[in-house]
Amino acid sequence: MPRVLHLGKFFPPFAGGIENFLADLMPAQLQQGDTVAALVHDHQRQWSRFFATTTAEIWNNLSIYRVPTYGRLLYAPISPQFPVWFNQVLSQFQPQLLHLHLPNTSALFALGLPRAKRLPWIVHWHADVTSALNSKLSIAYHAYRPLEQRVLARAHTIIVTSEPYLASSIPLRPWQNKCQIIPLGIALSRLSDPPEQTQRWAEQQWNNPAVKILTVGRLTYYKGHEILIRAMQQVKGAHLLIIGQGEQQRYLQTLITQLNLAHQVKLLGYCTDTELNALLATCDYFCLPSLERTEAFGVVLLEAMRYSKAIVASAIPGSGVTWVVVDNQTGLLVPPQDEVALAQALQQLINNPQWRIALGKAGQQRFEQLFNIQNIAEKISVLYQQVFTSMNTTG
């Protein structure tokens, strides 16, 4: 069985879809007999760790190496020790294959480390870097792109999470022949039925008997929370909870106050996994109002589907969201940045509870068929074996 080192950006308890996916994938790989570890950035800024030695945290019988960081620049961790840790982990763990999760600026150090260059690479392409809504990110991408393309050229195989994203990705266009579609997935064990006490807590957060709408995501520019809040002005008979933290938190709270929506919309901030599961279990349906392809897949959609919840989401051109959610079968898709269309879809599900339940049940069936992490881990394991077979044949 292969020894695989994952290179990720962060890892739980950092809250993020890609981070949760990796934390679900690795135990599933361990159950299959693979030997896996992860090299990631510590999401907490700790100057006291500046001279920390390269040591692993043992998490669920897996080695997680968290490299010290000192802030972020355009969402990229500032981690000068990363290449040193990377080289030492390669020596200590002695992987046979590197599984690079991009975008991640620190993964580019693989291009300069002889130990890394002697190994086959799989690139897991989670999202393009470019953004139509963030000009600073688009400008910075010009410097990042040449190195990104060198990584893609060096990769044996590129995993892309959906056909729509592959078809619309400009950075992947030269490498179509080495791309494989494997969707993201989640572990059922992580999304168990919440304890009765936590479920009571969740019920208390819905402060009126109206239909309960939930959205979860970092409070940042592309998530569309402002559009959703404005749409709620036109929605009757519903209460919205927004879960997450981020740089737009103060602005969104001010907007809720200005629009006199405090009785109908609430920013709940950070929640533990158990609390989030309870909110997913007790809500009536879920909304993902993201604005652009930076929302490449939407792991949180899978979490809502696991709890049999109908979904209202943005039909982002070229995003995997439009494949994860089947319009009028597991949820409703609306044009991004269209608060009127969003309000109409939200109201439709409020007014039609039986249809809402039917959509949720269909979503749960789709989840079980396509997005269980065991199935995803098996597909990735097959890919690993293909890589080793190819390397042995050509070697």
What does this 3D model show about the protein?
The protein has two domains: 3-187 and 372-394, Glycogen Phosphorylase B (Rossmann fold); 188-370, Rossmann fold (3-Layer(aba) Sandwich). Helices cover 41% and strands 20% of the residues. It is globular. The chain is of the alpha/beta class. The mean pLDDT is 93. Residues 204-366 form the Glycosyl transferase family domain. This is Glycosyl transferase family 1. Residues 16-185 form the Glycosyltransferase subfamily 4-like N-terminal domain.
Concise summary:
41% of the residues lie in helices and 20% in strands.
Per-chain topology:
Blueprint: E1 3-7, H1 17-32, E2 35-45, E3 57-59, E4 62-69, E5 72-73, E6 76-77, H2 82-93, E7 97-102, H3 114-117, E8 121-125, H4 135-154, E9 157-160, H5 163-168, E10 179-181, H6 196-205, E11 211-216, H7 225-231, E12 238-243, H8 249-258, E13 265-269, H9 273-282, E14 285-288, H10 299-306, E15 310-314, H11 321-324, E16 331-334, H12 339-351, H13 353-370, H14 373-394
Parallel strand pairs: 1-2, 1-7, 2-4, 7-8, 8-9, 9-10, 11-12, 11-14, 12-13, 14-15, 15-16
Antiparallel strand pairs: 3-4, 5-6
Domain Glycosyltransferase subfamily 4-like N-terminal: 16-185
GO molecular function: glycosyltransferase activity
InterPro entries: Glyco_trans_1 (IPR001296), Glyco_trans_4-like_N (IPR028098), Glycosyltransferase_grp1 (IPR050194)
The end-to-end span amounts to 19 Å
Overall morphology: globular
Query: Can you tell me the CATH architecture of the largest domain?
Result: 3-Layer(aba) Sandwich
Structural class: alpha/beta
Q: What is the quaternary state of this protein?
A: single chain
Radius of gyration over C-alpha positions, nearest whole angstrom: 21 Å
Structural domain count:
2
User: What is the CATH class designation of the largest domain?
Assistant: Alpha Beta
Q: Percent of residues in beta strands?
A: 15-25%
Mean pLDDT: 93
**Which strand order does the major sheet show?**
3-4-2-1-7-8-9-10
Per the CATH scheme, the topology name of the largest domain is Rossmann fold
